Amino acid sequence: MLGIRFTKTGKLCYAEMQNFLLKSGDLVIAQTDKGLEMGRVVSKVNKEEIIDKISEQDIVKIERQATPSDIKRQEELKEKAKKSLEICKNKIKKYNLDMKLVFATYTLDESKVIFYFTAEQRVDFRDLVKELANEFKTRIELRQIGPRDEVKSFPSLGTCGKELCCRTFLPDFESVTIKTAKEQGLQINMQKLSGCCGKLKCCLKYEEDIYKEKLKTLPKMNEIIEYQGENGKVVGQDILAQKLKLKLGQPGEERFVFCHVDEVKRINKKGSKEEGSEE
Q1: Which residue range(s) make up the domain with 19?
Q2: Which end of the chain, N or C, is surrounded by fewer C-beta atoms within 10 Å?
Q3: pTM of structure
């Protein structure tokens, strides 16, 4: 099977190779759940390996390889979509609808125009759809998207100074939680941890597996451990470097030391050294 994307970082769809002699990078015209669209072949995959992991919506049918006229037509429709977007915005104002229009697309055969929008609450746009259908003389579809999809639609720079991951190479949005940030020892400052979309930054997931693996070998915060024959409390962690900050000594005479995890011995709840600790 062939792996096909219809936008640069869009969802990966699959199609039977049939008798087409296609390779990665080739443009194709395919029938999708939206209609006739132009996509790009990005990979070849073994059907047996993915058949249980994909849904019917992930399967598309290749109609033909794209021609120069198809490519020209696609560019013309992009310009037409921009003009349609402005018309739709005026209609939204007319009906005083609480929704923000983001972008619009035409199917290649112009059988449908799709308007993408964001909204805080459910919007009754039935009258709007009827008027748009009369205006454009084609099928109208309005699709609500989330803040991440909205930001992904336009060129933007992240706090790192580079163009957003979701717009350049990240095809799917994974769930990112505060727990992920805590496991990496990050200060919980939502202003710094949030991306342009207002959600937690996707890049917090990139090193999550490494941090989880490293945490398995580190004593937990506030855990009592043994260091050079003396009991101390873990008050700080450098997870990647596998180093600890320990508080030693009696109240009023506390002192702090920094050490590697290999220099300490963990103690179980009964106060004895855990199995596997060095003697």
Answers
A1: 2-66
A2: C
A3: 0.71
